[in-house]
Amino acid sequence: MTLRLRIALWFGLSMCGLILLITLFTEGSLRERLKEVSKFNTGDPNNPGYHLHVGYSQSEIDEILRKLLEVRLLVALPVILLSVGVGYVLATRSMRSIDGINRELSKLGPEDLARGISVPEKDRELSQLVEHINGLLRRIASSYAEVSEFSGRVAHELRTPLSLLRMRVEAEASRLPSNFSEDLQEEIARLTRLVERSLTIAKAQGGKLEPDMASVDLTAMLADLQEGYEMLGSERDLAMEWNVPKGLVVRADADFLRQILHNLLGNAVRYAGHSVTIQAASISGGKRVELKISNDLPSSSAAFAGTGIGLRLVKALASAIPGFGCSAGEQDGRYTATVTAEFSGTKA
Question: Residue 314 in contact with residue 326, Cβ under 8 Å?
Fold first, then answer.
């Protein structure tokens, strides 16, 4: 039950209780008054001391009170319904400031944390709440910037020694056992990719990536990647299904988009249990394109052990491209990554 509805019901129940108290009080008072016997002078001059006593019987009193109760109930029902409606309207108006705060918070990105949100009105309680939220956002922004800067510095520091180590291994490859040399070069290459990805993420989070926007044929790019990933899938006996219509052209940075596709397809093939599905379609009346890459989940959770840096890189690159959206999650036994982009009618 929503807060607005709870406030409206509380308002209606309060009105119902008030009506009930008034009804009980007035009914008791009226019952006593009706029980009283009235005394009237007959006005007969021959019998000046003779008086006429008039009163209601118990059955007449009960009938009168029953009729009055029916009238009160008929009046009370619309009054209570009206009070619930008025309570809901008042609750809705009172919640506008909180709705505004929620909307502003939902629009904040990593680069907007330090800016915070604005105070919707000069209400003391809400002003204090917004001040506390802004203080928390500023602290988060500071920590976020420090972590991003640290990641970038670490990545820069690691690039040079890894490059030197790779060159020394290549130079001494003839003197080293072949298996040892290949394993060593493979591990160095893996660490180099990890460092490059970390550096890219740090740049994206710091707003230092500048995308080269153009019209990119998503259909053609996926077709170019299909053969290679189907070969990887066949090595693991995966069933791969491609549902990509022709003519899906999006506004994007071609290099960023290719990196996003490589990461998502690589993760899907690496972590799938039996099947991978790639599905693209035009949505929002042809204004946007949606790409979904999903895989079934393996029976063992050990297959998911990793750094998670691949998805972080995808989200970082997507956030650097205007009009891009990216989300991922598990549902009904499948893990699905969804990317949306603006549709472009012409190729670059």
Answer: yes
Q: What is the pLDDT of residue 188?
A: 78
Are residues 83 and 146 located together in one domain of the fold?
no
Angle among Cα 119, 124, 128 to the nearest 5 degrees reads: 60
Asked whether residue 205 carries a pLDDT value surpassing 60, the answer given is yes
pLDDT tens digit string along 13-45?
787 777 777 777 777 777 766 666 555 555 556
Where do the DSSP E strands lie in 218-297? 239-243, 249-253, 275-283, 288-296
3-state class percentages of the chain: helix first, strand second, coil last, to nearest 5: 65, 15, 20
Per the CB < 8 A criterion, the answer to whether 313 and 194 are in contact is no
Token reading at 36: 């009283």
Query: The domain spanning residue 237 has which CATH number?
Result: 3.30.565.10
160 domain-assigned: yes
Does the pLDDT at position 113 exceed 50? yes
* Bridge partners, 279 (sequence order): 243, 292
**Is the CA virtual torsion 5, 83, 11, 80 positive or negative?**
negative
Residues 170 and 236 in one domain: no
Q: Are 290 and 283 in contact (CB under 8 A)?
A: yes
Range of the domain at 71: 3-39+51-94
Residues 58 and 76 in one domain: yes
Q: Which whole-number Å values give the CA distances from 153 to 90, 114, 170, in the listed order?
A: 53, 22, 26
Q: Indicate the pTM of the whole model.
A: 0.53
Helix (H, G, I), strand (E, B) or coil at 53: strand
Q: Are residues 198 and 223 in the same domain?
A: no
Report residue 157 as tokens: 């520091």
The letter for the amino acid at 164 is L
What are the structure tokens assigned to 135, written together? 């203080």
